[in-house]
Amino acid sequence: MTPPRLPPTLILTVLFLFAMQSLAGDTPVAEGYALHPGDVVQVVVWKEPELQSEVLIRPDGGMAFPLAGEMHAAGHTVAQLTAALEERIRKYVPDAVVTVTVKSVGGSQVFVIGKVNKPGAFPLAGPLDVMQALSLAGGATPFADTNSIRILRRDGARQSSIAFRYGDAEHGRKLEHNILLQSGDTVVVP
After folding, report:
1. Which residues are registered as beta bridge partners of 72?
2. How large is the greatest C-alpha to C-alpha distance in the chain, in angstroms?
3. Which of 91, 163, 180, 189, by CA, is between 20 and 30 Å from 6?
4. Looking at the predicted structure, is the pLDDT value of residue 18 above 50?
5. Please, what's the b/e burial string for 46-65 (b: 16 or more CB within 10 A of its CB; e: otherwise)?
6. pLDDT tens digit sequence for 106-132
7. Under a CB-based contact definition with an 8 Å cutoff, are residues 94 and 88 in contact?
8. Backbone phi and psi for residue 59, each to the nearest 5 degrees, phi listed first
9. Superfamily, domain 32-105
10. Tell me: the pLDDT tens digits for 131-145?
11. Ramachandran area for residue 67 (φ above 0: left; ψ -120 to 50: alpha; else beta)
12. Do domains 32-105 and 109-189 have the same CATH topology?
């Protein structure tokens, strides 16, 4: 007697999940990317084609999805949003498997202003330090005071200013000052 044949999609799904688990190993996973207003996520409920769509996280941090209704998404990680969606959708689809993927990080950005060649907002799609942000902005102009650069950071209602001396980083000194930027940081080049 031959064993029953499994559907190829099921086999691929199991292999993918096994590979992801193997890659993760026993290493603790970092907290993860926190969603921001302006981000777009792709939500897919397995085997439910009508429950698949791209969802914009609104300026108020909320989002809406069929069967889940209105919910707050900003500040949550992808894993947290996935769990919340699954909990709500399982009231209607008991064996629902939800996948959430970040499609664009429009809400997570840093700003570089002042005497740089291309000032503006830059997406924060991954780790980005001060030197890399300056590079994205086309570097400093010849009249910039690169040893007086400041990073403005807001933490709730409190704002702080962090000093950065380009000359030190350029010569491999005080590299701990070349900090990783956070969403909403502003690099000011006087």
Report:
1. 62
2. 81
3. 91
4. no
5. eebeebeeebbbbeebebeb
6. 778 899 999 999 999 998 878 899 999
7. no
8. -55, -25
9. wza like domain (3.30.1950.10)
10. 999 999 999 999 999
11. left
12. no
Tokens for 40, please give them. Answer: 């777009």
Name the phi and psi angles at 179, rounded to 5.
-70, 160
DSSP calls for 31-90: --PBP-TTEEEEEEETT-GGGEEEEEPPTTSEEEETTTEEEE-TT-BHHHHHHHHHHHHT
- Is the CB of residue 104 less than 8 Å from the CB of residue 40? yes
Topology given in CATH for the domain delimited by 109-189: Outer membrane lipoprotein wza fold like (3.10.560)
Q: What percent of the chain is helix, strand and coil (3-state, nearest 5)?
A: 25, 35, 40
> Residues near 190 by Cβ (< 8 Å), separated by ≥ 6?
114, 115, 144, 145, 148, 149, 150
Kindly tell me the sign of the dihedral angle through the C-alpha atoms of 46, 51, 56, 59.
negative
